[in-house]
Specification:
single chain, 215 residues, mainly beta, five-stranded antiparallel β-sheet, 13 strands, 51% strand, globular
């Protein structure tokens, strides 16, 4: 089965605007903000697994990866971040393998930078989807974002929240990838790249996106 993107959402605070996750068999939630360990909450009362994190200690900034396999899904699905200034990147996917976890890479920078890469990652099989997320501490100033190597689902650029960006690519053939997150105001930053396996019999395909909803 080919992996597909059913819906996405980028938001700060919460609850988010509603998306339709009908048909998804896997949810991914990147918490982009402080080094909080509280699980995300959503309107379908799903249970989330804390899978990985990357932290930058100068500003207590982090990207934390939460996942939910075999979730409750449907229309009117909303998500809530731990605090109003926290940001999040949510992906609802279909066609994900029960043994979903392929490989991950991440990076952090405690200096005043305007770009960061998570490090090169090559999936172990064809047909994987690769998801990436960024958090940067722009300290109350809006900052225009760019993302190369992934299709952005919508950057959070508001000065009142942790700035963030996230995106995805579905690879027909497993290929090394090291996307670049960029922004205009120097800050500390963290980012992560996560490869997810397609279900048995899956293969590559164009990134099908049904019902994307972003800020």
């Amino acid at each position: 089965m080919t992996i597909a993107v059913v819906a996405t959402k980028s938001f700060s605070g919460g609850p988010s605007a509603a998306i339709d996750t009908t048909g998804a068999n896997f949810l991914v939630y990147f918490h982009c903000g402080t080094q909080a360990t509280s699980a995300p909450t959503d309107s379908k009362s799903n249970t989330w697994t804390d899978l990985d994190h990357v932290y930058e200690n100068v500003d207590a900034l982090g990207v934390r990866l939460w996942v939910c396999a075999s979730p409750s899904v449907g229309s009117g699905h909303t998500f809530t971040a731990p605090a109003f200034y926290e940001s999040a990147m949510v992906f609802a996917l279909s066609g994900v393998n029960a043994t979903y976890d392929d490989t991950r890479t991440s990076a952090s920078n405690s200096g005043s930078v305007t770009s960061i890469q998570p490090g090169s990652l090559t999936p172990s099989q064809d047909g994987d989807i690769l998801l990436g997320a960024l958090a940067n501490n722009v300290n109350g100033t809006s900052s225009s974002h760019t993302l190369s190597g992934l299709t952005s689902i919508g950057a959070i650029e508001a000065g009142s929240a942790i700035n963030a960006d996230g995106g995805y690519v579905i690879q027909t053939t497993a290929t090394a990838l090291n996307p670049t997150f960029g922004w205009t105001t120097g800050s500390t930053a963290c980012c992560m790249l996560f490869a997810i396996k397609a279900a048995a019999g899956g293969g590559g395909g164009s990134p099908a996106l049904m019902g994307q909803a972003c800020l």
